[in-house]
AAA+ ATPase domain-containing protein
Amino acid sequence: FFPNHLKIAIKECLISSIQQFTFVQRLSDRFVTFFSPYVEIKISQYDGYQYNHAFASIETYLGEKATDKAKHLRASQVKESKDLVLKRDDTRTRDEYKGVNVWWEIETDSEGYRTYKLTFHRRSRDIVTDSYMKHIFEEGKLIDAKNKKMKLYTNNPSSSWGPNKTALWRCIDFEHPASFDTLAMDSKKKEEILNDLAAFSNGKEYYKKIGKAWKRGYLLHGPPGTGKSTMIAAMANLLNYSIYDVELTAIKDNSELRKLLIGTASKSIIVIEDIDCSLDLTGQRSIKKKTKKNERFLMSWKKDKEKDKEVKEDNKSFVTLSGLLNFIDGIWSACGQERIIVFTTNHMAKLDPALIRRGRMDMHIELSYCTFEAFKILAKNYLDLDTHPMYTKIESLLKETKIAPADVAENLMKKKSEIDADGSLNDLIDALEGKNTQKATVDESSEKHGIKRFNPFRNLF
Ligand SMILES: Nc1ncnc2c1ncn2[C@@H]1O[C@H](COP(=O)(O)OP(=O)(O)OP(=O)(O)O)[C@@H](O)[C@H]1O
Ligand SMILES: [Mg+2]
């Protein structure tokens, strides 16, 4: 019915009254806040890029608290053997502390970030800020320690990183049975590693005193199937740390690597498996070489353009050596505490010396082919044997044959259902005497060509 100019006038009038209303509302909000007897404190999930640990403590504390009074509950079973864990699932929770009432509310913004809002009466300000807040952080940490589940994280490809930063890593509960007791290796070396780990995990004061970031790097090297991944699992079980298994090939550049590192929690082991295979660490240098060569030969405008494009594309597709070095000992690794970094490789010689120099990787641990001492541990694990008449023969055969503990274990496990120790040991002797040389050759050649064996962590996802 209305002519166009009238329509526009009505629309403008509406917009201006909405604007006025919003302005008035904002003013009245401020007015109410100014005279309100209530005080608000906000605690966000992230402080810049850094995860806010206070947020986690509050979440744990409120999640566990007073589930009997909550109307909405969420049930989960942490471990198969454990009872159901009930958590409250309300967005608003009332809490009482020393006769003071406080209200907690959780808000999620449009980008998916969450913030806790704590509201209390002005007259309780001192008690809330001085002792209540301290009380919940401590309670939260205690509950966490009591329920501590180890996690195994792996990084998501950056294309799936959403505004909610939890998407940087995905995780599952870590339940690997490996332990240092069952790890077959030289006992002296094992002792040395155990002492080193103990010194590290109790070293908070020491690291502070010497002014170093509280972190330690281990380089595990050795042929396939010698127990590198198993040792990482044993380390995690020993220290009760979570594992972050970094898949370097899913990371586009150094800045993504930094983001991932900042997104890890303390008391964790950051693992980069098969460092020689997963990263083209010579990439930067080969680009420079390529560029120089190109400068000499490719003079035309068109070809120069192609060259630029190539360099750019190469640059964005992988993490560089300097990025990785920064990751290990640069300023970024100092922003978290109590981290262990583990690299594994089958080919020490392929690694850039800068990456493995002492001080950067604090300890180099070689896991070697099966020795007689290691065999005895495996026989104890698999067959429950302390000694056996065939041991003398096996001892002399092991001195002259290279066989990975994984292959020894496989032979010992075959007859497990019958618990036939003699049969298993005979199989092993056959394998050692070369009746099974095919297998050994396959292993040797896969080692030579960097072909990867089964990785127990990757397969869990
Ligand atoms: N030293 C060892 N002690 C006990 N078990 C071992 C040892 N080495 C290997 N095993 C057994 O062999 C299997 C494979 O070993 P693991 O995955 O740890 O080898 P790896 O050194 O990581 O090999 P890769 O270089 O191929 O990754 C393990 O599941 C474990 O049962
Ligand atoms: Mg491995």
